[in-house]
Design a protein that fits this description.
The chain has two domains: 132 residues, no CATH class; 36 residues, no CATH class. It is 12% helix and 36% strand. The protein contains three helices and eight strands; from the N terminus they run E-H-E-E-E-E-E-H-E-E-H.
C-alpha cells in the first residue's frame, strides 16, 4: 500500500488496492476488544495534478465487550475512506479548490505515500464507543456483579438522594 508520490501525480496513475491487514497488534492490551478479524481494505487511488485522491472502504469483523454486561458482541464494521494527499513541495491550484478544501489535504513529506497508518487510524476512529449486546441489555448489578440479563438479584437498588440521606431513617420505628 505504498505509492511513489511524484510518479502517481505526474502520470495521473490509477490503481486499486485490495488487501487484508492483520490489525490485532492495534488492539493489544485493550480489554474491551476480545478478538479482531483481518481488516479488508478496498481502495481506489487516483493521481491528479498536484495531489493524490484515495477513496474506498474498509471492513472488519470484531468481537467486543458489551459496555453494560461485558458479554461478547460480534460486530461487522464497514468504514468509508476518503482522503486527499499532496506532496510537501507541491502546490495545489487555489482556483480549483476553496481555502477550506485545501486545508483538507494531508501533506506527505516523504517521497512515498504509505497508506497503512491512515487506514489504521480510520479503523481506530470508527470503533464503536459503547457496543451493546442488545438494546434492552440490563447490564450488571452494581452491588454484587450479577448479570441481570440472566438472573435477577436481591440487592437493594433503591436510589437515595445524598442530600436527603440523613432523613431516610427519620420515620422508622
Amino acid at each position: 500500500m505504498q505509492f511513489h508520490m511524484q510518479e502517481t501525480m505526474s502520470k495521473g496513475l490509477k490503481a486499486e488496492v485490495n488487501e487484508q491487514l492483520d490489525v490485532s497488534a492495534l488492539f493489544k492490551g485493550r480489554q474491551d476488544v476480545y478478538r479482531t478479524g483481518p481488516l479488508h481494505v478496498s481502495l481506489q487511488v487516483a493521481g491528479h495534478e498536484g495531489f493524490i485522491e484515495v477513496d474506498g472502504k474498509l471492513a472488519v469483523d470484531l468481537e467486543l465487550a458489551c459496555s453494560r454486561c461485558l458479554e461478547p458482541v460480534h460486530d461487522h464494521i464497514v468504514i468509508p475512506f476518503s482522503e486527499k494527499f499532496k506532496a510537501a513541495t507541491s502546490v495545489v491550484e487555489s482556483d480549483e479548490f476553496t481555502e477550506e478544501e485545501i486545508s483538507d489535504f494531508i501533506e506527505v513529506k516523504a517521497d512515498r505515500l504509505d497508506m497503512k497508518p491512515y487506514v489504521e487510524e480510520a479503523l481506530q476512529l470508527f470503533m464503536p464507543f459503547a457496543p451493546l449486546c442488545s438494546d434492552d441489555c440490563n447490564g450488571l448489578c452494581p452491588n454484587c456483579g450479577q448479570n441481570l440479563n440472566e438472573h435477577s438479584c436481591s440487592c437493594d437498588t433503591a436510589k437515595v438522594d445524598v442530600r436527603f440521606a440523613a432523613l431516610k431513617d427519620l420515620f422508622k420505628e
